[in-house]
Amino acid sequence: MPKIGVFVCWCGSNIAATVDVKKVAEAVKEEPGVVYTADYQYMCSEAGQSMIRKAIKENGLTGVVVCSCSPRMHETTFRKAVVAAGLNPYMVEIANIREQCSWIHKDKEEATEKAVILARTAIAKLNLNQPLTAGESPVVKRALVIGGGIAGIQSALDIAEAGYEVDIVEKSPTIGGKMAQLDKTFPTLDCAACILTPKMVDAAQNEKINLYTYSEVESVSGFVGNFNVKIKKKARYVKEELCSGCGVCTEKCPSRKSKNEFNEGLDNRGAIYIPFAQAIPNVPVIDTSACLRFKTGKCGICAKNCPADAINFEQQDEIIERQYGAIVVATGYKLISLENFDEYSYTQCPDVVTSLEFERIMNAAGPTKGQLIRPSDKTHPHTIVFVQCVGSRDTSGRGKPYCSKVCCMYTAKHAMLVREKYPDTEVYVFYIDVRTPGKNFEEFYRRAVEQYGVNYIKGMVGKIAEKNGKLIVQGSDLIANEQVVIEADMVVLAAAIEPDPSARSIATMLTASIDTNNFFTEAHPKLRPVESPTAGIFLSGVCQGPKDIPETVAQATAAAAKVIGLLSKEKLLSNPCVSSSDEMLCSGCSNCEKVCPYGAISFIDKTFKIAGKTEARRVAKVNEAICQGCGACTVACPSGAMDLKGFTNKQILAEVDAICR
Amino acid sequence: MQVEKSNEVERNIHMDLKKITEEQTSQTGLTEQISENRANGTREKGIGAKGDFKPLIVAFCCNWCSYAGADLAGTSRLSYPAEVKIIRVPCSCRINPIFILRAFGRGADGVIICGCHPGDCHYSTGNYYTRRRMTLLFSMLDYLGIEKERTRVEWVSAAEGVKFSTVMNDFAKTIHRLGENKKLEDLRCKEFPY
Predict the structure, then answer these.
(1) How do the residues of chain A divide into helix, strand and coil, expressed in percent and rounded to 5?
(2) Average pLDDT over every residue of A206-230
(3) Which phi and psi angles does B88 have, rounded to 5°?
(4) Structural domains of chain A, with CATH
(5) Is 3.40.50 the CATH classification of the domain at B44-189?
(6) For residue B188, what pLDDT band results from cuts at 50, 70 and 90?
(7) Is A76 at the interface with chain B, CB within 8 A?
(8) A114, B71: Cβ pair inside 8 Å?
(9) What is the pLDDT of residue B186?
């Protein structure tokens, strides 16, 4: 017979103000199994926990119900508390009377009544709880980082620093990511390449770090500590081990019509190319959609000219299979497509550029060698208009509802750089709000306005149209309350940033959750900001939400610290709430196997002795190390042989009964 | 204009339906029977005054998205009726049709299932099973006389506290409109097998 203790938490006034906690404790006294009830101001505090431990010892409790906040908050806390008193951690149930009761109801009587029912439900379930023991599984001491931008590089460097092997998988031919494309960084105006490229070299030279560039994650299976990952290494058609990176092939390539992705399509590259001079690895790749050899079968000039004989047109994609203990997601971002924003004429006018294109134009290694010239006629622009919040903070559905966070600052940077280099150029910035929450950010923005004379106009741009080689920008000035028309030579759009398109498929592979905007969700927005709710998956950089470089680096290091903490463990305890099959009931129909998303169910032939007769049957067997405890099989099982520990059919039915009493 | 028109048409249909059901119930004397049962206090439903309909709504929420969405509704202080009681399950695909039958058998007036959005399931495919299973179950329940509006599947993510509260308010309103569910609890099924 279970002996249950019920502990009702006041949570200060969070619960006690709307729920009569004493009444709740009193009301559940007569519930089956309940032998002890108490209430206390903060059950989660040390005093509260010791109260639980004491009650367990003094009253010989076999299980504990805590009526408090959400189990997502403190279930682990109370499990640890009962373990200290000698109970099994799974003999704890939480009645969520804060988030699901006191915080949403105002009427005290009504809230108290509901709290009693919730407590009763938890007691009904606990009456059927069984002690569960977590299995142990070893930890593979190797981490995978998906994405080789600054976030991925930083995470990998930190993990390698602690002595663990790390693999970086990067889908483009080089690591470096978006930061490599940037010209200068705010608010210090450091050159991005000067601070990034040494880190890229560090990553390449670190013997613990293994780079898989031009590669993609193909599939992920397994679980925390034991992920099994297939990586597709796409064919470069260049033998990495032979290539010296001299670049002769890229110069000789006769195809010149492909858009240069690194320069945001502002100039062209050959079919065989190295993305940029500091690329790592410094090995070219052949774009088969442009290469004459692949399109027509004739050519092969690159192979003839290669001094190292490194070109191999026969190279095939390669699948690499590896085990990892932890995975860091650092898939980064891209700018949104501006197709739906006709008013800015981005698709029609070449002199309307995105902020990232402008970065390339301003960059000394960019398509214009750092000369500020218009893409259309290569002349110097004398008036530049910057438009902020292009697709950010947009609730119309065309853009994104969130703030892209970095645009205010990089626009101030662009404006400042233009004014410094070309004092004859007038600069206007259209903004909704200027947001500068960061160290030295506000000062930086003030400098742009006061020292560099950038004209900030509060208002939106309604239309941009080309007329006689000029861009007519029509907007509103909300402070002067008038319409403004500016004849500009060039317009720069601060387009919203969105997660890289690969985020969704990667999240699906990892069974990590993403939000409505495709940003990865953190396990807890405040207390576990670098972990995904899926164990063993960590988040680094913009894949989790818009952020600037220092924040990205901080998060990357934090994610690395979490990975190191995980990899330093010899063994991991697995979730004991897994499925199990009652062999006596199992008919071996395979329904469960078909619905299992993890392939955790297999079948074995077993002999049974029933009433003196020996009978051989095929029965289901669950691999507890692979089962994640979703419970799909329990419903698919026609004979009721499958059940989920911790959420058994009986327990859930008892909960239903307790609610519908 | 068009929207207004269609709303009006809908309203008219509702009025017609209401009339028909009222006529039917008065014919069969069901109304009297229901109020008699209620006065006898055959089942406990909240602490409202007698005759004041307090529905009983069971919400099954998956641990990863919807339960977290409900928590977010709580932390954002977005209220919804106390009639809604939540049962936590690891995944919406853990919900056995029997749980829903049992709830109705024991007097629930509505059952709502909340899971992750399609494609966002923590277990990758669980909610697809839920979608298919519940489509079948709900049409069967409809056939048995438990109106389709009493059962619902909603996708609520961990970030959608507002949606959770809106959905629950709306569902409770629907159940209030439908009134008490007696189908699996009436004379024919008094001793419900589960």
Answers:
(1) 30, 25, 45
(2) 93
(3) -90, 130
(4) 4-126 (3.40.50), 142-234+317-332+500-567 (3.50.50.60), 248-305 (no CATH), 334-498 (3.50.50.60), 579-645 (3.30.70.3270)
(5) yes
(6) very low
(7) no
(8) no
(9) 54
